[in-house]
Amino acid sequence: MIIGTAKVYLRASWVHSLKEKRMIVQSITTKVRNKFNVSIAEIEDQDIHQSIVLGIAYVSNDTRHVNTVVQNVLNYIEGNTDAMVEDEIVEIL
User: Fold this and answer.
1) Between the CA atoms of 52, 27, 58 and 92, what dihedral angle is there, to the nearest 10 degrees?
2) CA-CA distance, 84 to 77, in Å (whole number)?
3) Cα 24 from chain centroid?
4) pLDDT digits (tens, 9 = 90+) for 50-85
5) Angstrom distance (rounded) from CA 43 to CA 53
6) Using CA atoms, how far apart are residues 67 and 80, in angstroms rounded to an integer?
7) CB 84 within 8 Å of CB 11
8) How close are the terminal C-alpha atoms of the chain, in Å?
9) How many Å apart are CA 53 and CA 73, to the nearest integer?
10) Cα–Cα distance for residue pair 67/60, rounded to 1 Å
11) What are the pLDDT digits (tens) for 5-49?
12) Rg of the chain over all Cα atoms, to the nearest angstrom
């Protein structure tokens, strides 16, 4: 069993309320979950308006497939949100 995980740090400087932030997080997580069939959730900084930290996990029996899916998810997030990606941490276990 191969597990791919990623942690994505995003900065949304235009967000001024938690309600607005949660709408952005909900939109990103729903789109990613439906398109790639991965587990995704906000995992840190839930009470900080402009900071979004997403955790992603994917399980398969092929290392290359896991790496490809995780990279595709990261590319999709970068291309489909106005938030700036500050950092990405990827681990294949």
Assistant:
1) -30
2) 10
3) 12
4) 999 999 999 999 999 999 999 999 999 999 998 999
5) 6
6) 20
7) yes
8) 9
9) 14
10) 10
11) 999 999 999 999 999 999 999 999 999 999 999 999 999 988 998
12) 13
